[in-house]
Every structure is written in structure tokens, then in C-alpha cells.
Amino acid sequence: MDDAPPVKDTKPKVVAEKQKTVALPRASRRKGPEPVKVKEEEEGEDNDEEEENVPPPEKAATKAAAKPKKPLFPVASKKKDPEPKPVKVEKVVDEEASASASEVEEELEEDEVDEEEKPEVIAKARKIVQTTLTTKAKDPYPDWKPGEPVPYAALCKTFSLIELTTKRLIIMEHCSLFLRQVLRLTPDDLLPTVLLMINKLAPDYAGIELGIGESLIMKAIGESTGRSLAVIKQDQKEIGDLGLVAVKSRSTQPTMFKPKALTIRGVHNGLMGIATVTGNGAQGRKVDGIKKLLSAADANSPGKVDITKDKGGPSEAKYIVRFLEGKLRLGLAERTILVSLAQAMIAHEAYKKNTVPSTGDIEKAESILKTVYSELPSYDVIIPAMVEHGIMNLREHCKLRPGVPLKPMLAKPTKAITEVLDRFDGQTFTCEYKYDGERAQIHYVAKDADEELSQSLPSAAATEVGRGVAAIFSRNSEELSKKYPDVLAKLQSWVKEDTKSFVLDCESVAWDVTEKKVLPFQQLMTRKKKDVKIEEVKVKVCVFAFDLLYLNGEAIVEKSLRERRELLHKSFNPVEGEFAFATCMDGQELDEIQTFLDLSVKASCEGLMVKMLDGTESGYEPSKRSRNWLKIKKDYLAGIGDSLDLVVLGAYHGKGKRTSVYGAFLLACYNPVTETYETVCNIGTGFSEAVLEELHTALVETVIDRPKPFYAHSTGGQHQPDVWFEPRFVWEVKTADLTLSPRYKAGMKEGVDPAGDKGISLRFPRFIKVRDDKKPDEATTSRQVAEMYRKQESVTKSKGPAADDDFEY
Ligand SMILES: Nc1ncnc2c1ncn2[C@@H]1O[C@H](COP(=O)(O)OP(=O)(O)OP(=O)(O)O)[C@@H](O)[C@H]1O
Ligand SMILES: [Mg+2]
Ligand SMILES: [Mg+2]
């Protein structure tokens, strides 16, 4: 067990004293110029702290070791479980329901899951489009009257079929078949159908969130079924899946009258109502809204259900509850839905003409929809346009436009300049300072321009600025005008007269007015997040623009970075302390880059961004973490290359003086393929007393009785945190390196451990900051963790233990 994290065998100690001396997060100590030196000693000091801060193992250690090993996903367990029996149905392939897909899939390799569908799966899926999808023979649900609202039961039937399999191809087929049936019978309902499938009510920038915790849902289940809250809580303790608790609660209820069956439209409206209630008694009205949906759920299939046996039974209540919880857990990635949607659409168009689409056309349709969605991530705009104009004409009708924020392009981490040189070998690249602030996407349209700031933008979000209208969005498309009214107020002064519309990619950075230089991120953090009044702004920000995506009525994402940069520099006027272009350097030599890296650090930046400069590969790739953008962070050069953003799943009570707060936490990365949070470390280092208090106050609101069924965690007695949380908070964490450990589950599905019983874990993790700009499902993914782990291994192997000899600081 020597590969387990060192935290494992430590004895309980008093943490309070020791933690007072805990150093501040590194960035806050980084005032002014500082050499790029990597401080090995500091990691050692972390080591000591770590030992002090980690929760004590319990006496159960040996007992637990003797227990049979628990499966990764307790709810899907086939083995005997000493805990209350999980009742979730097992995933098996339902051959009968989709013989064609399963036949084809036989030939494919076993379920290697992927964030992007495998090319072979896609190829086979296209065959299915040409056969199954152009007939009605395999429709998942009996036809409803054309033009009538789509029954919610039809969607739930599809969900149930999807839930019975893990085969990507079969999942895709179910998905496409249903979407095509909707297109054939009630195309007007395609939008709410897709939204309910992706577990969203509206595009991200609309800012509509359910935010319903377990307690509200339990209350609603209780009240709508006449069962006491105590009984519901008991059920939840035993079953561990609120969706099934809802089904169980319903099944014991005699049906006095038959409510009207739910429709997709009705459920979408109902959920929207729940999400948008505000003001006095909002909680109560949310509960009422949930009750209303739940009492109408499964109206067509009343009666008693044995949830442990009945796989295909009533499921509307289950999926409503899961939607409210924010996780449908169908293994249905949004990417899959996008491809299925394209396939359904092209099949539907062919079906209407009584033809079969060619493979080339199917491929083209998929690619059109993917591109359109990456530039205009709004089903609200795309779906009606697609239904009206046909998928092949979609690009003409749906283009990147000011007012609809796109997901920014992201970078891959690197650990050495040589790694960057290897990557860009033979190509021209450019280096830019990597500013340490907050990503900001600025949209602007002049009043006398031909276009308008999109209609789809909530009107409150567009601010009048001089000659035009503007909006600012965060990395995850949240609207930031309430946070940066000072930026908006000055914006017009840096827009040149004949610049009529644009979308800018920038970093907003705290600015020291007297010293005339940028300040570390910690300063930016002290700014208020909402309702900022210009007169009260204490921390000024300067906007550093590094890319231009749209200019004067035209999307320019496909132009080379060199061209975009030229247009950027031509279209704006820098204003000191308000607006600047990211400092860049086009030298290609190692020593030039090294010098530039030094300079960036002296200028209080985090390091460098190195980007492909010419050719198609230098185009802007929205929403993609691309190898055409690499980041070099000076703090991570000798470590794993980057920090991680992890979700807080649980905590351990503090000891000694710290009994009123949590002393350590259990963190996880996210696996978007299985929709699970996989544990990756315990952390007790890097927190100040004040921060611990704050975190406690926020976290205490999200305590739940037992881990969510979509938490992949070890179940041995000594590994259990004292409390579990809803998955809500994302923290940035730094680590010395990554190791394999039987205690954690991260990356277990990524094949890093040949034996398959260890996950990846962080050694000497240290808390850096709360990431308000990331949602839990935007946390570092299991795949990224695995990639970092593998890279660390290969670097270590090829260069010896000193991970980076290229730096002689
Ligand atoms: N010149 C620049 N070009 C591109 N991005 C920059 C630049 N300067 C600063 N940035 C910021 O750096 C970020 C990328 O690195 P960083 O590690 O900070 O990402 P992050 O927000 O933690 O996200 P992730 O770790 O998921 O990539 C960009 O999203 C952007 O906010
Ligand atoms: Mg950053
Ligand atoms: Mg990061």
C-alpha cells in the first residue's frame, strides 16, 4: 500500500494550531517581480501540513480491509452489498428493443467510452440512419396524434431504453429514433424535447437554474404522496436515489382520480416555472410546482410497482426528480444528442422525400450542426431554424452573432518550453502573456450597424454604451454586466469609429492605478460580483484583449490568428489602465521564449499562452480544449503542468479549536461520460481560518444524508467523510504530483491502472481558490487527470525524476 497517498496512516492530531501558519495561496504572495524559480522546499513543507490536516482513519481500518471490495458504482452493483440494498436496475443490453444497433455493435470493441463518439460508432450509426431511421418500424412509442403535444411518457420510454444499455451505438439509435418520431409528428416540440434530454431549461446565458436541493425535493415527494417526510428520508437513506424514492412513494398511493397525462411541453413549462419563481415564499412555491408535476406523473401507468424488479415500469416521476437534481444519469452525453439530432433531422428530411440519405450527406449534416452549435450554442435559435430551413441550409441561418455567447477556446497544459517546441515543430507560433484574471467575452453592436444585438439576449443583459449596445459574458456564458459596469461605461472610448460590431475574447485583470500595472487574481476576487456601483469600485480592472471572433457583421473565427490579431489591433484604441492588447512575441527560439516567460512573470502574469499563428489550425475553436493553444504556468513547471478544478463532495469535522468548521474535504473530478464525480483526494491544506469559516457557512447548506448515486467513491469504513454535500462547489487545487491509490476513483475508467483497482490521486494537494466561474460539470475531467498522470509518467521515464531540466533558474 505504499502507493496510497501518504495521508492514509496518519494519526489524529490537533489541527488548529498548525493551520494558523498555513501559507497563503501562492498567487497572493506573488507581489511584484519574482524569479520563475520553482520552490521544491515548499512542497516539502506542504507535506508536513498535510499530515496534520487529514482526517483520522477510524478503527474500522482492518475490518474494512477484510470486506469484499466494493464495485465502482454502488448503485449499479451486481455484488452483494452489505449496505441497504441499492435498487437501481442494472444496465443490460436490451437486444429486443434494438437488435440492429446491438448487432452492429457486436463487431465493435467493448464499450470504450469517449467524450467524442468513436469514429467507428459514428460510422455504424450512419448505417442505422440509412436503414432503421428512414422507416417507422422501430419507433419507440406508439404514434400520438400528429400536431398534438408529445407525451412525456414517450420521452421517458426512450430514457428507460437508454438506461438499459451502456452501448454507445444503441444509445444513439434510441435517441435518434425518438427525435425523428417527434420531427415526424410534432416538430414544434423538438426544442423542449431536446432541452429535457440535455437536462437544461434554456441556453446557459439565460441564467435560468433550478437550484433545487434534496430537501425540497423530499418535501415535495412527501406532500404529493401523503407520506411523512420522515418516511421519505428513511427511504432515501435506504434507496439512495431520490428518483426511485419518488416512484416508490407514488406506487403505494391509491389513485383517487386520474390526472391528465404529462406532455413534454407541460413538463418543460412546469420546470421553467419552478426555476424562475422569486421573491417571498419562493421555496414554498417551488415545492408546489414540483408537487404538481409529481402528482400528474405516471398518470397512465398507476398501480403498484416493485422498483427492484420492474425495469420498464412507470418512470415519469423518476426522470422529473432526476432532472430537478441536475443529473439524468443515462450516459447520454450532450455531444451524443447533438449527433443524434443531426441524424434524426437528415433521416426525417429523406423520409419525407421517400429517399435514403447518402453517407456523405449524413456526415455533412453532423458536421454542420456541430459547427453551428459551437458558434451559436443556443438550441432556442438553432432548432426552429433547422426545422424551417432544413439542416443543410442551417449555416446560412445560424451564424455566430453578438448577443449569443460562445464557449471559449481552451488551452492544454504543458510542463516545459521544450514540450511546446516539440508540439509546434515546423509551424509558426506566437507567445502571449497569460494574464491572471477572469475570462471576459465582450459583445458589441453599434446602433447604426446593420445587425442587432441578438433578440435572444435577455433585454436586461444588454447595456447602452455610447454609440452602441454591449454585453459581457463569463467563461461559462454567465452575463457579467452587473459585475463590470465600469468596463461598460468606458467601452465606447476604446472602440474605433468604424468598428460597428464585434465579439472580443479578453481577460479582465485587476489594475493598480498608481503603479500602473496588473495585480494578482486575489485582488480581482475582492470585487463585488453583482450590483457593482461605478462610484464604489475600489478594484479597477483593465481589459486585455487577445482575440477577435466577430467584426463588422462577420464571423472571423476561421481566419488565421495572424489575420485576427491584425484586425484586432486595427479596430481598437488601447487606453492605459482600461483596455490593452495582450503583450505578444513572435520569436521561435527557446531562449527568446524563456526570456519572454521571465518578463511575463515580472509583469505579474501567470506565464505564457503559446498559440498556432498561421494556417487553418490557427482558427478559433470555440468550446474546444485545443492543442493549438498551450499554456505554460510558471508555478507548475516542475509539477504536473496545471492546477485542477475539483468538486467538493464531502468533509471531515475539524478537531480541537476547529470543531465548529470542517477541517478537511473530499474532492472529486468529473467524468462527463458516466456522469459521475470520481473522488481524487482529501485536502486540508491551503485554507486560512477565515476561508474555512466561509466555506463551512456555504457548504453546511448543501449537506445531504448520504452520497449521491453518481458519486464514485470508496466505501470502506475508514474512508468515509463525516458529511456529504450536494455537488455544487468547484475549488482550484494545486498538487505536487499524481499517484495511483486504491482509495480514490479518479480516472479508473481511463485504463491508467492495468489491474483496474486503483484510481489517480493528488499528492500534497493545496487549496488555491473557489472557482465561482465553473459549474461542477465544468470541473477538471477524469480524462484530463488521466492525461496529466500519463504525461507525468512519460516525462519522468524519459527524463528522470527531475521533471524539467530545461530550466536553470
Ligand atoms: N493571452 C491569453 N490568451 C488566452 N487566454 C488567456 C490569455 N491570458 C490569460 N488567459 C486566460 O487563461 C485561461 C486559460 O488558462 P487557465 O488555467 O487560467 O484556465 P482555467 O480558467 O483554469 O481553465 P482550465 O484550467 O479549465 O483550462 C483562459 O481561459 C483565459 O481566461
Ligand atoms: Mg486563469
Ligand atoms: Mg485551470
TrEMBL record:
Keyword annotations from UniProtKB, A to Z: ATP-binding, Cell cycle, Cell division, DNA damage, DNA recombination, DNA repair, DNA replication, Ligase, Nucleotide-binding
Protein family membership: Belongs to the ATP-dependent DNA ligase family.
PROSITE patterns named among the record's database cross-references: DNA_LIGASE_A1, DNA_LIGASE_A2, DNA_LIGASE_A3
One of the record's GO cellular component terms: mitochondrion
BP terms from Gene Ontology: cell division; DNA biosynthetic process; DNA recombination; DNA repair; Okazaki fragment processing involved in mitotic DNA replication
GO molecular function list: ATP binding; DNA binding; DNA ligase (ATP) activity
Feature: compositional bias, Acidic residues: 41-53, 95-118
Biased composition (Basic and acidic residues): 1-20, 31-40, 78-94
CDD domains linked: Adenylation_DNA_ligase_I_Euk, OBF_DNA_ligase_I
Limits of the ATP-dependent DNA ligase family profile domain: 534-671
Listed name of the protein: DNA ligase
Lineage top rank: taxon: Eukaryota
Alphabetical list of Gene3D superfamilies matching this protein: 3.30.1490.70, DNA ligase, ATP-dependent, N-terminal domain, DNA ligase/mRNA capping enzyme, Nucleic acid-binding proteins
Major enzyme class: ligase
Region (Disordered): 1-118, 773-809
Coiled-coil regions listed in the entry: none
EC number(s) from the headed UniProt entry: 6.5.1.1
InterPro entries: ATP-dep_DNA_ligase (IPR050191), DNA_ligase_ATP-dep (IPR000977), DNA_ligase_ATP-dep_C (IPR012309), DNA_ligase_ATP-dep_cent (IPR012310), DNA_ligase_ATP-dep_CS (IPR016059), DNA_ligase_ATP-dep_N (IPR012308), DNA_ligase_N_sf (IPR036599), NA-bd_OB-fold (IPR012340)
